[in-house]
Amino acid sequence: MAIQFPDDFKCPISLELMTDPVILTSGHTFDRASIQRWLDAGHRTCPITNLALPDYPSLIPNHALRSLISNYNLVSPLNSQPDHQPSQTCSRSRPQPQPRELISTLTSRSSPIETKIDSLAQLNKLSKRDPAIRRHLTESGAVSAVLRCVNSLDPALQEKALSLLLHLSLDDDNKVGLVAEGAIGRVVAALKSGWPDCRAIAATILTSLAVVEVNKATIGAYTDAIRNLVRIIRYGEGREVKEAATSLYAICSFPDNRRRAVDCGAVPILFRIAELGLERAVEVLGVLAKCKEGRDEMGRIDGCVGMLVKVLKNGSARGVQYALLTLDFLCSYSELMCREAGREGVLEMCVSLVEDENEKIRRIASSLVQTLSGSRLM
């Protein structure tokens, strides 16, 4: 049976799974290729609301949704199987537990850990495919029991509880409700003391919750949320580092959180990780460069411009875009940065990029050319 993805993962235009989700200025998300075809055809209204758009609408990468889509298969504790094909011979001899039974087992404080792990595994399988099951879980009061399992010392119980919490967070109606039930505190604790796979899922949950604007402020204000994400980026490995950086990017679209991230020492750590090849770190730097504290901290990094130039030369289109954006903020702010950029040949590189096929790269490169041409480095 093919995996049934949530409707929110599908483009409203093509109705296909989004591979590069972007947010239109109307606030709605589309797959980049689909909305670009709509705009190239001359339309200047949102396909959903019919509201007027600017002459040159911005397409903002929806990193939170992209990360959720890419990790959707990874968090499932069981592979999807056709409902009419039992996975084991023994399952033919007894009926599979119904959601109500599984929830009852989970909420009972007397249930053994092994039984709770099995119940969570089956609820993960069911909730992954069925929004009605997710709604039933939240309405039945099971969330508090799931949250208790999130901070279990048993790694299997913790991982499956976090996976179920992530599935529940996929529905917009749940995002604020989960926060109201205390999910952030439990997830932040898992960020600090969980196993690597658990930390990765915990970071992805914060990314999912941060899709709602009010939750970004709540997460950022929560003690140690940003600090623990920065800590994972510094000391973690593999997937957990990428997910922590993605979460930090999503959270720091809220201005107050940028300053908090800088105060937690994020800037030098992000530069170090970017040097090692994680372009998501460059994207976070592009967001942090929007605040004065972030620009000041970047100005203290030896070789700051040189690292960004390496991304301009060797990075992907997304990496080039955010390296340009960071340089544009820095050079607009500091004459010293302008002179360093001049020595590194940034102006010449930008001149070549103003003809790039990527519209965002062209626009930011043109802005940076103007900034550098108007400085005293000429």
UniProtKB/TrEMBL annotation:
PROSITE patterns xref list = U_BOX
Which top EC class applies here? transferase
Task: Give residue spans, biased composition: Polar residues.
Answer: 76-95
SUPFAM superfamilies reported for this sequence: ARM repeat, RING/U-box
Region ranges (Disordered): 76-99
One Pfam family name is U-box
Pathway entry: Protein modification; protein ubiquitination
Q: Which GO terms describe its molecular function?
A: ubiquitin protein ligase activity
This protein's UniProt keywords: Transferase, Ubl conjugation pathway
Which reaction does this chain catalyze? Answer: S-ubiquitinyl-[E2 ubiquitin-conjugating enzyme]-L-cysteine + [acceptor protein]-L-lysine = [E2 ubiquitin-conjugating enzyme]-L-cysteine + N(6)-ubiquitinyl-[acceptor protein]-L-lysine
Write out the GO biological process terms: protein ubiquitination
Q: Which EC number(s) does the record attach to this protein?
A: 2.3.2.27
Task: Name all U-box domain ranges.
Answer: 4-79
**SMART domains for the chain:** Ubox
- What InterPro entries has UniProt attached to this entry? ARM-like, ARM-type_fold, ARM_PUB, RING-Ubox_PUB, Ubox_domain, Znf_RING/FYVE/PHD
Q: What is this protein called?
A: RING-type E3 ubiquitin transferase
